[in-house]
Specification:
Distance between the termini: 22 Å
Shape: globular
Helix content: 25-40%
Strand order of the largest sheet: 1-7-6-5-4-2-3
Radius of gyration: 26 Å
CATH architecture of one domain: Alpha-Beta Complex
Number of strands: 12
Number of helices: 15
CATH class of one domain: Alpha Beta
Largest sheet: 7 strands, mixed
Length: 524
């Protein structure tokens, strides 16, 4: 086993022929052993010629760097090869089924990418005069119209840059509405135990107190528990539907009525909108605000932290508080900014971002909607739910279901009860999935389920790909049950890198690369 320059064994284990025929480079034919970029490049050189900058007086004071920055210089071929090789080690939706629950990693049609790169969209600049971006503004306005149609809401803020950003916008609109009514004393936000972690974080960030609402034995929130938590201090509830257990909240209409009767607002986390597009409109269910992850529901996989887009739709109760900037249609398309003339009743609570949103995400979502149509988007939701239930039913005899064998929505949730006394954990099972060529599902979430395994196949997968995935998981499950612990504890065996010591990495992280000692060639 080889060591990397920080002294940690990382290379995949070798058996049989591979072990008997080691290579000098560490490469195995087309599987290239890629070095760190610091080991490839040289700090004293650069791949480009840059004029020497003029001397200026530093304004950094004691913060000024007193030594070379130490970045490696690479030639263009070296840089290109390095990042291409790294991309070949990455798993993505173009590589295979990506069962990452609650993240909707669906196929991203190349048509959408092509549209996003059209001149006038791909090269539009946020500081261009409004008169020169009328087409882009028209697209944003048209997309906004479709989002309102799909959700049954009268208003939408397009500027939030991601789901949590939209969530923040929705809760800030609720706070502004309460203050406008003279009800700023309402400081409590109800959040179910199974909620996404951003929900309580967002509420706390803007000054609300979070009060938990329990999830019942069937995995849903019951209206009786909500009513018991209501009072004159409650500002809102933050509920996900379908929820993070993959179940539709069947009492959502009654919950909305109870919330409104108490003078509070209903925020719905829209992370799982992919399950109900074209089937149910949140506005019809009594929702007052809901963010929409364009990057999840409308086709742009977002692994690696971006890109994202999180428009938030608002009910009639909150429509007046849409943040700046927003589009107004007259003789043309105009952006209403701070200081601009407002129509009667408009009370923007402020602004969420420097500019109007993520143009590339808007174009991709628009292309997705136009290519699918209303019936196609509805069918996508139906297929997402069908695929998840196919996986649930196909694994239910081997893997345990925390809320009983009831139909799920777009994601199937298993717990680790079936792994008791096997010596195999949820993490071990997930690592063994890597050896089988699959990205692991969401692990240990939602927190209300012990050892959770949350699987979302999306509508993109064919029956053939689902059948192979199911067969692989069944084989792993049977191996765990028959005591083949070694298959799991050392996994992954076939990945370019072995399992990390995550505890050590968290407690003693190595945050800076250090140059290794010179390598001495062995004597003959």
């Amino acid at each position: 086993m080889s060591m990397n320059t920080q002294g940690r064994p990382t290379s995949a284990g070798e058996t049989g022929t591979a072990a008997a025929h080691p290579t000098f480079t560490g490469n195995k034919a087309l599987q290239i052993e890629e070095a760190l970029i610091f080991e490839i490049g040289r700090p004293e050189v650069s791949g480009v010629d840059i004029p020497e900058p003029k001397k200026v007086k530093s304004r950094l004071g004691k913060l000024a760097r007193d030594e070379a920055i130490g970045l490696p210089g690479l030639t263009e071929p070296e840089a290109m090869r390095h990042y291409v090789r790294l991309s070949q080690k990455n798993f993505g939706i173009d590589t295979g089924l990506f069962p990452l629950g609650s993240c909707t990693m669906k196929h991203n049609a190349r048509l959408n990418e092509k549209m996003a790169r059209l001149p006038g969209f791909g090269d539009v600049h946020p500081l261009q005069p409004v008169s020169t971006v009328q087409g882009a503004l028209q697209l944003i306005d048209t997309l906004a119209h479709y989002l309102k149609e799909l959700t049954g809401m009268p208003a939408v803020a397009m500027s939030p840059k991601a789901g949590a950003h939209g969530e923040l916008a929705g809760m800030m609109a609720i706070k502004a509405a309460l203050e406008a009514k003279g009800e700023g004393h309402r400081k409590i936000v109800l959040v179910p135990e199974s909620a996404h972690g951003t929900n309580p974080a967002t509420a706390a960030l803007i000054g609300f107190e979070v009060r938990s609402v329990p999830a019942q034995a069937d995995g849903t929130v019951h209206v009786s528990d909500v009513k018991a938590a209501l009072g004159p201090e409650v500002a809102a509830i933050m509920l996900t539907n379908p929820n993070t257990c993959g179940i539709f909240e069947k009492e959502i209409v009654q919950i909305a009525k109870a919330i409104h009767d108490a003078g509070a607002y209903f925020y719905c986390d829209g992370a799982n909108f992919n399950a109900i597009v074209g089937k149910a409109r949140p506005g019809d269910l009594g929702v007052d605000a809901m963010h929409i992850n364009l990057h999840k529901t409308f086709s742009t996989p977002h692994g690696g932290g971006g890109p994202g887009s999180g428009p938030v739709v608002l009910s009639e109760r909150l429509a007046a508080f849409v943040p700046y900037p927003f589009i107004r249609v007259g003789k043309g398309y105009a952006l209403v900014e701070e200081g601009g003339k407002l129509a009667k009743g408009e009370q923007p609570f402020g602004r969420m971002s420097a500019f109007h949103g993520q143009m590339g995400m808007f174009v991709r979502a628009m292309a997705y909607m136009l290519s699918h149509g209303a019936d196609g988007m509805r069918l996508a939701s139906e297929d997402a739910v069908l695929n998840a239930n196919y996986i649930r039913a196909s694994l239910a005899d081997l893997m345990s279901l925390p809320f009983g064998d009831q139909p799920c929505m777009h994601e199937a949730l298993f717990d680790d009860d079936w792994l008791k006394n096997t010596g195999v954990s949820t993490l071990d099972f997930a690592k063994a999935m890597i050896d089988e060529g699959y990205h692991p599902m969401t692990m240990y979430f939602p927190l209300v389920v012990h050892g959770a395994m949350l699987i979302e196949p999306t509508e993109s997968e064919s029956k053939a790909s689902l059948d192979l995935f199911i067969a692989a998981l069944r084989d792993l499950a049977m191996a765990a049950k028959r005591g083949d612990v070694d298959r799991f504890k050392g996994a992954p065996y076939h990945a370019p890198r072995r399992r990390l010591d995550e505890t050590r990495a968290a407690r003693t992280p190595i945050l800076r690369w250090t140059k290794p000692a010179p390598y001495a060639e062995a004597a003959e």
